[in-house]
Hints:
heterotrimer; A: mainly alpha; 9 helices; 76% helix; 0% strand; C: mainly alpha; Fumarate Reductase Iron-sulfur Protein, Chain B, domain 2; four-stranded parallel sheet; three-stranded parallel sheet; 24 helices; 7 strands; globular; binds protoporphyrin IX containing FE; binds iron/sulfur cluster
Amino acid sequence: xxxxxxxxxxxxxxxxxxxxxxxxxxxxxxxxxxxxxxxxxxxxxxxxxxxxxxxxxxxxxxxxxxxxxxxxxxxxxxxxxxxxxxxxxxxxxxxxxxxxxxxxxxxxxxxxxxxxxxxxxxxxxxxxxxxxxxxxxxxxxxxxxxxxxxxxxxxxxxxxxxxx
Amino acid sequence: xxxxxxxxxxxxxxxxxxxxxxxxxxxxxxxxxxxxxxxxxxxxxxxxxxxxxxxxxxxxxxxxxxxxxxxxxxxxxxxxxxxxxxxxxxxxxxxxxxxxxxxxxxxxxxxxxxxxxxxxxxxxxxxxxxxxxxxxxxxxxxxxxxxxxxxxxxxxxxxxxxxxxxxxxxxxxxxxxxxxxxxxxxxxxxxxxxxxxxxxxxxxxxxxxxxxxxxxxxxxxxxxxxxxxxxxxxxxxxxxxxxxxxxxxxxxxxxxxxxxxxxxxxxxxxxxxxxxxxxxxxxxxxxxxxxxxxxxxxxxxxxxxxxxxxxxxxxxxxxxxxxxxxxxx
Amino acid sequence: xxxxxxxxxxxxxxxxxxxxxxxxxxxxxxxxxxxxxxxxxxxxxxxxxxxxxxxxxxxxxxxxxxxxxxxxxxxxxxxxxxxxxxxxxxxxxxxxxxxxxxxxxxxxxxxxxxxxxxxxxxxxxxxxxxxxxxxxxxxxxxxxxxxxxxxxxxxxxxxxxxxxxxxxxxxxxxxxxxxxxxxxxxxxxxxxxxxxxxxxxxxxxxxxxxxxxxxxxxxxxxxxxxxxxxxxxxxxxxxxxxxxxxxxxxxxxxxxxxxxxxxxxxxxxxxxxxxxxxxxxxxxxxxxxxxxxxxxxxxxxxxxxxxxxxxxxxxxxxxxxxxxxxxxxxxxxxxxxxxxxxxxxxxxxxxxxxxxxxxxxxxxxxxxxxxxxxxxxxxxxxxxxxxxxxxxxxxxxxxxxxxxxxxxxxxxxxxxxxxxxxxxxxxxxxxxxxxxxxxxxxxxxxxxxxxxxxxxxxxxxxxxxxxxxxxxxxxxxxxxxxxxxxxxxxxxxxxxxxxxxxxxxxxxxxxxxxxxxxxxxxxxxxxxxxxxxxxxxxxxxxxxxxxxx
Lengths: 164, 329, 549
Ligand code: HEM
Ligand code: SF4
Ligand code: SF4
């Protein structure tokens, strides 16, 4: 357990970067390039929000923080993906990419049979936590969608949108 | 794919010229027919295109305003970014043409957490574009030495500034390398950035490859496979005086010369026409005097609208009931 | 990979996982048809509106349909219109010919920034039309076709146009950064005009157009309804200030005709701004009138075609002439001022029956409007304040921490930047600017301009509103900003939604709402509420204290 935590914390930055990269791959490649390269937060709010918040999530995951700690950073990300052209599964599925990123970061260590066995239990535990985070993400996604619908409804009521 | 298409086209052109220089009979074609055809295509196309733009009306005054308008006396207005006088417009255009002002806007210097300063690649675009265009201009002027006798003073002056460092014999012209460097960057940028690759067409790669080929053959002639200047000057003067000489200057020269002809020939039919477009763009070359001076639209045809009378006929009863004054009781 | 399950180590082979394809799709953008996702397109025009305006091909249809029920010869129709527009607009011609695809504009569009769809890069949006131009109207294109960026005009192209030209708010931000000033808004206008020839338009634009044609305003408010609305506002004003106002309507011989977007009559917070105008005019004793016939400053014709724009706009001068006013003042609105500033005089002028606007209070002559005879209300008010003609108590707005959103059109088609700022600074003590690359000429659109402000495309609007929302959120976090001021009726509708999603807690206000709340009117009672009828902080305690002493 401890071994795994240490190993990952040593590679925290790489892990977060990899996760971000996997997330950005869900966009058109030329867009992903822009999201990644433009560092100004106001010229590129999507890319910068993803970059900042994936770092926060990764950090809190490795620090073993409770589920509440993930609400805010995930909300920042999901709020964006909830109104982009994704299906629900696509919008939320980015959390599972974190598992891929973890496995990849550990790939070298996992190649060794002995080490792999040692890490197995910890890995299993970590992945369960990621699953838990995924469920939270789903809740957040639904709340964002509800928000969108309530905004639509309010505009209709206000009369900006006219029937007939 | 599009890049390969453009590259292929350039290679074919190079082979064509290389072959032509070796076959005696074709020298007339490459030395006489091609340059005159190119000049005709260039002048004809340029005049036609510019005329077709100029003939098309500018129905509305639509400057893109990039600064404070001229209103109340005590509010300073942006003289160039939102010009309200002809002088202001000239200033704005000069900034655009000489310094690529709008492209410069793109530049963003960011201070990242921890005080690190980042120049986004946009600045490089501006710098490379400026470097390329000025080098091209200088090189163009330098070439006048082949077409003039005696060579005018300013050409000599530019030439001596350009070879200021006197490295090598004959000494290196800085702009030649600046040009190739800048073009290399502009090409690389298109190939490397996925975003740019996505928007680039074969017509975007073609001029870049063409200019790189021209620049490279030029440098090769000056520094590696010396070409006899006197022969070339004879060719150039021959063309200008309508008594062309066919004595070629070797394969390299034929290729260089042929590609330049291609550049001239395609100029008016390609995006290179931005040279003229920049001067005629209505969002940049008009003063924001919109409310002060009436702009006339030559095709301003009448459009029927609902008149007050029709409106009142429709609503008269309701208006009267509400106590709103009406024209007809 | 298939033979391994996710719980097996082999499933996660590093080499394979890292093979993320960062290369653009093999086929270029030219061959990827638009994917009509709900939330990204707007309902088409109802046939009755097209009929009432006499526009082509009225029918029931949906963009989600396979068959759009176009006339047999649709290609010919587009070709003909394309040619006509190329002959009418130098801008169109030059913008078709000069783009070098440098990419400077690519990441400047709020829809691309917030959503990431590459065809929302202004350069590609323009290429959607430019590719057809090359193929059909240039010699080289006719010969080389696809090899030089040409493209055949197919049904997929038309669908793509409909999809992407109704994802452009004609905000002109891209034009600011283009070395040749190529204005994608202009290209969008041309494309929409072509689409209208086939009966392809959206209801949220065409219904207001039809309304405006008949009733004089987008909302279809009839004369008596407008009177009721204004009187209703006056009741609220009386509640707040104790001052009674009788709104002048269709009054002949008034000095000034006042025209504002009808959005100001409809819903909060626009209504508060409207009250603000009335209080200001009352306080300075301006001899003005509303008009029920020209009761719309905005002009959805701008989002339709030049002729429709002209048709709707014509009423303003016609009414000014009928009423015999001296000049016109226009309220706070964005696209309305694009029309008034850049089109009205050319289309429907000369307004030689009017006088050059001169403030009756300060004597200032508005030379900048010498020909149009129409001034912006913030120009008028800024002049009043500068001359000290208004008694202002900015402390009344002390609970407001405000930032200012430059609306696209006043910023980039006019340059109205300092007037509203001067006013805000005179009536508020807490003003904070958003980051430099999101204001003034670089301002970000609300995401709902140019007729996109409806609800069925809410996701698209929220994507487009994200850059603005992020900047608002920034000043909210940094300076505790709680209100966003703007000079646009569309903003007052759409930014409420944008803020609720991206920066919840920030309210939207018009500049003249702030003015009215800080204005000390002659003979007013002590203010305990603002125009929203919310108690002023401290007012309750103060009342209690007053009672004791
Ligand atoms: C008044 C004259 C001109 C002005 C103001 C001007 C301006 C510009 C600007 C602002 C760009 C965009 C930056 C870039 O993409 O690099 C550009 C690109 C370009 N210009 Fe010019 N230009 C002028 C004349 C010319 C001429 C005479 C040539 C031809 C030899 C030329 C060739 C090019 C090429 C090839 C590009 C594209 C570079 C690329 O693909 O990245 N320009 N020009
Ligand atoms: S900035 Fe202008 S020239 Fe450059 S790609 Fe955009 S439209 Fe074309
Ligand atoms: S005008 Fe505005 S919305 Fe349209 S392409 Fe340009 S930046 Fe985007």
